[in-house]
Write a structure and sequence with these properties.
68% of the residues lie in helices and 8% in strands. It is mainly alpha-helical. The chain folds into two domains: 60 residues, Winged helix-like DNA-binding domain superfamily/Winged helix DNA-binding domain (Arc Repressor Mutant, subunit A); 49 residues. A three-stranded antiparallel beta sheet has the order 1-3-2.
């Protein structure tokens, strides 16, 4: 999946699937009607679009995720860093921490992540 961008409505829809998958497509229609106020046709139109993006699959009436919410978020993050910071995570962290000071807990968590990447 290359396009990691979702509009607000697509994101709410995806969140419904992630929270309930795997689920029968008829149940998804009922969820969308109750949560989003959608008709059946709208649900299937958006589902088809997100299936084409490689996020979900509708296999014989059962909707399931091809990517977890976390995998999708990781892809969004990587795409953002690539677009906005030429793929440089240090540049991103420098920009982020220039506006908002990192807490001691955040620094420790980042250091633990770095140590884990080094195999320490």
């Amino acid at each position: 999946m290359e396009d990691y961008r979702l509009g607000e409505v697509e994101r709410r829809f995806a969140d419904l699937i992630w929270a309930n998958a795997p689920l029968p497509s008829g149940e998804l229609v009922r969820l969308c009607q109750g949560e989003l106020g959608w008709k059946k046709s709208t649900t299937y139109t958006v589902l088809k679009r997100l299936c084409q993006k490689g996020l979900f699959v509708n296999d014989n009436g059962t909707v399931r995720a091809l990517l977890s919410r976390e995998e999708f978020a990781a892809g969004q993050s990587a795409a953002f860093v690539a677009d906005a910071f030429d793929g440089s995570l240090p540049k991103f962290l420098a920009a982020f921490s220039a506006r908002q000071r990192l807490t001691e807990e955040e620094v420790a968590a980042l250091q633990a992540l770095i140590d884990a990447q080094r195999g320490e």
